[in-house]
Amino acid sequence: MRDATIHDVRQYSEDSGIKVLDRSVAIIRAVSRGDKTLAALSTDTGLPRATAHRIATALEVHHILARTEQGAWTIGPALARFSTGTSPHLIGAATPVMRDLVAATGESVQLYELTGDTRTCIAAEEPDSGLHNVVPVGSRLSLSAGSAARVFAAHSPIDTPFDPADLEQVRADGYAESVAEREVGLASVSTPIFQPDGALVAVLSISGPAERLKPSPADKWGKDLLAARKQLEAAL
User: 35: Cβ–Cβ under 8 A, 6 or more apart, which residues?
Assistant: First the structure.
């Protein structure tokens, strides 16, 4: 049985002689073919569940893997960034802008990147205290609800459930807002970030408890968000 397990793992990864590296690559390759639950990951790699869980969790810490809303492992933003060609300069330029935005609003701030049929949080800043919305870096969220999803839908050729007239308004305003759309009790306002050539590179969001941001997150923090967008795009 043990020899069979070793054989199963090696069919997904070259044998480098460094066991933990070979197993890590086997897990990444398995997940790259589609999101995997722990049971599926163990079956695909031939690794015991405890081993697969330990390594996958470690890869998640480094954002090489991430978790879907259903708890399965998926490819994380570190690899997604390499595959889509996103420059590390984006994160470096965004970090001080996002921190200033947190300081000004007292709310959470996220930066999302389009990753296939999902949006992935590639950077996040949180206030030091108080009730706030936490989106872990690496989280993959739906493109069917939320202000960031609306911005991606307005500026990307993706399938969308949103009304075309609503998306036209998003393009005209330069932002989108939502209250209790993706999650009860959560509200947000988001704006697109464009590269110098005009291509959409990310979406910047402010999010927090709906009780603080309603009835209109855009009325409350839209000007601050658009100022941050201008600063970030200038840095790019």
Answer: 68, 70, 72, 73, 74
Residues 54, 104, single domain; the answer is: no
Domain containing 125 — which CATH number? 3.30.450.40
Per DSSP, the residues of 149-207 read HHHHHHHS-----S-HHHHHHHHHHT-EEEESSSSTTEEEEEEEEE-TTS-EEEEEEEE
Best CA proximity match to 131, nearest among 69, 208, 16, 77: 208
Residue 12 maps to a domain: no
Retrieve residue 140's tokens: 């993959």
Query: Do 27 and 107 belong to one domain?
Result: no
Dist. CA 152–CA 119, nearest whole Å: 8
pTM value is: 0.66
For 9-67, the pLDDT digits (tens) are 434 445 778 889 999 999 988 887 778 899 999 999 999 999 999 999 999 888 888 88
Number of structural domains (the chain) is 2
Residue 222 lies in a domain: yes
Strands (E), 36-93: 65-67, 73-75
Q: What is residue 183's predicted lDDT score, i.e. its pLDDT?
A: 82
**Tens of pLDDT, residues 107-138:** 999 999 998 888 988 888 888 776 677 788 88
67: domain CATH number?
1.10.10.10
The tokens for 49 are 């569940």
